[in-house]
Amino acid sequence: MDELAHPWPSGRRPVDERREELGTNVATMAHSWSDDVRLAHVLADNADNLSMDRFGAIDLAVSTKPDMTYVTESDQAVEEAIRRHLKNARTRDVVLGEEQGEIEGSTGSHERRWIIDPIDGTSNFVRGVPVWATLIALEEAGEIVAGLVSAPALGRRWWASKDGGAFTGKSFMNAREIRVSAVSELEAASFSYSSTGGWDRIDKRTEFDALLRRVWRTRAYGDFWSYMLLAEGAVDIAAEPDLELWDMAALDVIVREAGGRFTGLDGRDGPWSGNALATNARLHDAALAYVGHFPDGDTEDEFEPAEKQDPEPRHRNNVLSFPPVGGERTMDPAE
Hints:
With 335 residues, this protein is of the alpha+beta class. It has helices at residues 15-22, 33-54, 73-89, 122-127, 197-201, 205-214, 223-232, 245-257, 284-291, and strands at residues 62-64, 70-72, 94-97, 101-103, 112-120, 133-140, 143-151, 156-161, 165-171, 174-177, 190-193, 217-219, 237-240, 261-263, 276-279, 314-316, 319-321. The longest helix is centred in the N-terminal third of the chain and has 22 residues, at 33-54.
């Protein structure tokens, strides 16, 4: 079978078939975190109602935080509603949110921590652009073990739990599994980012621009949307130079469970580095060779670019393309 061909018409394995293969059901698929994922869906349902009720409102109250980013009444209302629900449903758990910071649970234990971004993409929300979402993640023993992204204005939702796979759908029981792409060369890759300014601030603009020229296609889908498209196999590389933990936690586990890799620009796995590089895993080292950022000077040889300049383009079948950089080609932009 061709490497890019899929045995399922949608290109994604249905949940029912995955259940049969594992001899179980979604509720027992991933240790004990399925109950937490179900709870995340309930939290997201409530959040969606609150945010959609004010999306596009002409009297939306907007203010500016000390870092000059927007915060709206909806950011605050959504986070407060999630915290209130978690206080009853997960009394012992810590909750970290963008608007109110970290609040300990009833026992003072830090074993489990919920990480909340009430509205990721607030600037879009303020301007009436439908690309924004509520991000909900669960950290356990220092690892992100469950995550959910709900984008109600797009009518989309994604979620995952450790060893349980990544899914998209309308609800917990109405879903399909998602997987990253099989693209293995930068020349065939689609790269999504949010903006260019942050790369100047970490002195990586030249390398970032070089990667933009190297890949097949670039789009600034931005924010959570880049990473969810990557998890679905529609994008192959996503990167941002300046992020907070709540911007990344839910995205991390969804990308990993879809078969991808999520690290900081320093190559450290997980959402802990203050920035992000996510790929379909096959392209990770190649992308890191361009945008890897080691502020302490602790670089590793494996991430040094093999070429300092872009490869010379050539024409193939009257279409501009690039010579392969090694490995088996899985997709040709000229075809």
